[in-house]
Design a protein that fits this description.
- It is built from six helices and nine strands.
- The chain has about 220 residues and is α+β, with helices and mostly antiparallel strands.
- It folds into two domains: about 70 residues, 434 Repressor (Amino-terminal Domain); about 130 residues, Umud Fragment, subunit A.
- Strands 2-1-3-4-9-5-6-7-8 form a nine-stranded mixed sheet.
Length: about 220
């Protein structure tokens, strides 16, 4: 039976399967980041709110999951692992993750529309097994001194696209113009984001959300 609870539980399970929060899954599918929040699952009048068929279709496309996979989650079954990752993307690898230099990250062809690693030209770096098994996790090598004193030339930043981002988190941001930077998220509204520079000699930055290609949280750094 397709119950309200089972449909939402299946969406939560699909997000977890791809190492995402419900908000991260919504963003990866090109939806509003609050679309799958628990507060959105019931209306102000107390009535159940169901995800739309359009939202489900976008989620299945973004995660390269089939309808059969999703229905297996609705039934509480474990879907087959095949087809879990988009073509050209990196599946989780025990002990190693994709590595790219900051300068290269500004070029085209290294990321998909959701900011996940894709394409050719990536190197690989060994990393502890737990983070490396999160889908989409990758590493960026710091180049230059623009992030001093926090990050030095040659430091490795491990980034998790799709992870929930809160105020005060250190993030990597790529603009639609191809500029890549590591900053601290100071504020995010429905239209803009404000970023604090790690290096006091560099200015803080503000962007319209329409100017941002993707933003991902830094979960670890070698220092």
């Amino acid at each position: 039976m397709l119950s309200h609870e089972r449909i939402w539980s299946a969406l939560d399970a699909l997000a977890e399967r791809h190492g995402l929060t419900p908000s991260g899954l919504a963003r990866r599918a090109g939806l509003d980041s609050t679309a799958f929040n628990k507060s959105k699952r019931c209306g102000a009048d107390g009535r159940d709110r169901w995800p739309s068929t359009e939202s489900l279709a976008k989620v299945l496309d973004a995660t390269q999951s089939s309808l059969e996979d999703f229905m297996a989650l609705v039934r509480g079954e474990r879907p087959q692992e095949s087809g879990s990752f988009p073509e050209g993307a990196f599946p989780p690898q025990s002990g190693s993750i994709p590595l790219l230099g900051f300068a290269q990250a500004g070029s085209g062809g290294f990321f998909d529309d959701g900011g996940f690693p894709a394409g050719q030209g990536w190197d690989v770096v060994d990393f502890p097994a737990q983070p490396s098994q999160r889908p989409g996790v990758y590493a960026l090598e710091v180049q230059g001194d623009s992030m001093m004193p926090l990050y030095r030339d040659g430091d490795i930043l491990v980034v998790e696209p799709g992870a929930q981002i809160r105020r005060g988190d250190r993030v990597v941001v790529r603009t639609r113009e191809g500029e890549v930077m590591a900053k601290v998220l100071n504020r995010q509204s429905a239209k803009t984001i404000e970023l604090v520079s790690l290096n006091p000699e560099h200015p803080n930055r503000s962007f319209e959300l329409s100017e941002i290609d993707w933003m991902a949280r830094i979960i670890w750094a070698s220092q």
